[in-house]
Specification:
alpha+beta, about 120 residues, 4 helices, two-stranded antiparallel sheet, 6 strands
Length: about 120
């Protein structure tokens, strides 16, 4: 069980939600500096769609076991700036029964949306 979600506003995460174990981290000066520097490094644009980015996403999700590991929590190699839409899609896709890389053809067969090149 992950624990309940608690909104955090002071961390600059907008109206995002953080798990109990992560609230202190997301409100830390260390994260604030890292997050802002990373956003500037990618010119404030979503790294997936190019729209203005809102949320610095951890590619390897933070857990109680890795949140104190700077190589996970603060490494730019583990960060990605996403707009709200892409960030929502990222988190929903982990629990979704649908995929975005396939579609149905005229006969109802499942085929790749983007043919291999």
């Amino acid at each position: 069980m992950w624990g309940r979600y608690i909104p955090i506003y002071a961390a600059g995460v907008g109206d995002g939600m953080a798990r109990d174990f992560a609230i202190k981290f997301y409100n830390s000066k260390q994260w604030e500096k890292c997050r802002e520097a990373y956003k500037r490094s990618v010119f404030g644009l979503c790294e997936r769609c190019g729209k203005p980015g809102d949320e610095v996403h951890h590619k390897v999700y933070l857990t109680p076991n890795n949140i104190n590991d700077p190589a996970i929590a603060l490494s730019w190699d583990n960060l990605e700036l996403l707009c709200h839409e892409c960030h929502t899609r990222e988190h929903q896709s982990k629990h979704s029964a649908t995929r975005e890389d396939v579609m149905f053809d005229e006969q109802g067969n499942l085929i790749p949306k983007y043919p291999p090149q």
